[in-house]
């Protein structure tokens, strides 16, 4: 259940900080794939949290 | 790039034919169910969210707002990341109560059919622009590829094919709430096609138009910068608003609600989608900027459809256009299929059935099926008409945002439904109506007529002037909606029914249903009652279905089980006709009895729900639940029978020990009334409940294993400050104690008789000795042969009397062998003779023919008195088992260092069931009152004292009936050594 709080924190934190993603569009010095890289990291984090949740509920 | 109308028709029809073939393959079982039910299929089916907007609308948004287009994907990804706290509770509700749409859920929570109707109307108004968007992309794509003058007609053909597919494979079942593998696999295929096409287009842009990622980066840093001049970055507030809209769409949009909740998938699969769906969306979103930049690199101009269709301009190659067309068609078709299916269900349940209840329909299932089919056609036709009359005048972003903002009006109600039990119907309806009116006034006039939006900014929000209309409308409508919901809910009263439903829906609450008796008293009566509403055939099928789901018998009469049956029928009817109609039917035709007293909480049901919610509890609640489980386990595993009754006589607890004692499992009686328990428990428990005293001692009860003596204690559960009353009863089995008491009395009586017999024998001994001496003297005093013979006979008879007397005295004095005392040589022939003398004293044994075949010279080492007791017990048993005139043979044979003594009778033998327990105390085959069950245990212990063995054959080998007891005793040896243990294999 504590994992759920971590997920809530992640989602609301991401919601507040998400406008930063848009600055990468055609911005010199910023790789075009940066938002997708961040998104991929978030997915990996979710997979990790999902594993933790499974262990927590076992 | 230009293709003929026929080739586009062939391409589109070919794709739709592929969907038909896929559906057919699943239906015929050509695709194994392990593939059809794979979690990846579910993830791809959830990809239905990525509609034609994801293919074309995202390009349009990306060209205007840069990475702002990602809001469409990230909003949904956020919602699925919150699956454990947001989606799983909705799934639980929709599955428990068979709620197949948002309108069902709202109607259930706010206990009003009109709420369902209102949500259906809002959904219809909101989704029609989205449906039109799908058709519009088809029309625009056809126009782009063919340049045809009337692409709408070809779009209509595709709409017809999609409707036909939905009717054939989606509306075959009357229930929406079931897993339809065919539909899921087909939608998954559509998602796979659009994903594949998008990735191929993205790869084409990256590796063909550009020369790989480095070249793209160089272009973006150099010449490409100028092409991005038109991109206006979204204001952070607008971005967050967009995110919120798409977050809400993840579970409010009818097609998403349908796939996520109505298709009954496991909780595990839904939780897995928390990362698999975002991964799918990432792959869908990644090619969008690549395609846009690729089109800009090749110098493509935005055509009449705007930047939305730049993918067609990536290359002159026909297959690039075909890929872009198929991606759009796959996305649009999947979305249209599920939207039409979900909306038709909502319209049927909350508009048609509310206006025209299905009571007395001769064939209800068929009627419902055809109505749904007609509605599917009507919904898709409605989408096409909206596209023709309204959609053609607007871009995709305008249509899409209108739909998403409209649907978001249900967001406050949904959050209140899950997290605020204080919200009520009046608050929700007022908020939704206000929000919807603002949405209609703000976005629909420009949509329908081209007139400016009618938005009045409230005081304090004047700063929003100049912002985009969609943004203002979203903020104002949602803020008004939320504010009115809260204020009206706080200011008005909530009905008890609504409060109960709020508890059922609330994430943190457990339903506390009341224990009320029903008018119908068993499953068969349910059919009779329901037949008045549904007809006999449908009523019978629905009741049988619910009984089968609950594993109950049609004659089940436990009030607890009947309440569960009623709930299940209501849930099943809800899946068929929506919660409003289902509740009306159940309330009216399966009513509760009104003659009962105050309703109390259904504790057993509450407990079963708590068990199911255990993993969701945290902190203090989890600790308390741990304590509850500990106390529950203590009562369940108490080694004394325990049961508890509620005030209304309903059985609430039946522990393991009582199940073992009665042979009745707890699950089959919990929830039953006391008087419906099987005999003798109904009468026995009724007696203690009616008894003014709290105890009933050693009540004789005839059970399967024989007569038992039970002691019952009861206690009242009522407390001054606790509303839950009732009685708890403890049941102890005191049978063995009672038998021991009886045996003790019997043994005491025997001991007295033994002492008396010994005294009498002693007194008789003196005159007998005198008679014997006188007879001896007589022999010396006479030579008369007649007198000599008489004196000899007198002496023989007195000798016999002396032997009997000496046996009686010996038996009376025969106690336990003293450990360590040396055994003496004992002739088994003599011991058997003595035992036979004593047996003959009992008149009942006179008609049995005894044969002592023991050779007198065979002597064992032992205690003569103890061995005499052994033989008396064995011969007594043989006599009791024999018929009049039967033979009992005692024989002895030396076997090495052992003497095998056998006692064989021709009696009725020993019952198999008790054969293994014969040496246990109180095991007897004799009728009650005749046997104590202590004889053979005593024999066993005496033989063990002699280090011998005992065995029983019943019947003996080679004999049809009878019993043979075999004893192995140590032969007397001159050297005084004890023999080894006899062979244990015997």
UniProtKB/TrEMBL annotation, chain A:
The chain crosses the membrane at residues 7-26, 32-49. It comes from the Bacteria. Keywords: Membrane, Transmembrane, Transmembrane helix. This is MFS transporter.
TrEMBL record, chain B:
SMART domains: HATPase_c, HisKA. Residues 759-973 form the Histidine kinase domain. It is found in: Membrane. Residues 627-671 form the PAS domain. It is a multi-pass membrane protein. InterPro entries: HATPase_C_sf (IPR036890), HATPase_dom (IPR003594), His_kinase_dom (IPR005467), HisK_dim/P_dom (IPR003661), HisK_dim/P_sf (IPR036097), Na/Glc_symporter_sf (IPR038377), Na/solute_symporter (IPR001734), PAS (IPR000014). Gene3D superfamilies: 1.10.287.130, Histidine kinase-like ATPase, C-terminal domain, PAS domain, Sodium/glucose cotransporter. One of its GO terms (cellular component) is membrane. Its EC number is 2.7.13.3. Keywords: ATP-binding, Kinase, Membrane, Nucleotide-binding, Phosphoprotein, Transferase, Transmembrane, Transmembrane helix, Two-component regulatory system. The chain crosses the membrane at residues 6-27, 39-59, 71-93, 114-135, 141-171, 183-210, 242-261, 273-295, 318-349, 370-387, 399-420, 432-457, 469-490. It catalyses: ATP + protein L-histidine = ADP + protein N-phospho-L-histidine. One of its GO terms (molecular function) is ATP binding. The keyword Cell inner membrane does not apply. Belongs to the sodium:solute symporter (SSF) (TC 2.A.21) family. PANTHER family: PEROXIDE STRESS-ACTIVATED HISTIDINE KINASE MAK3 (PTHR43065:SF10), SENSOR HISTIDINE KINASE (PTHR43065). This is histidine kinase.
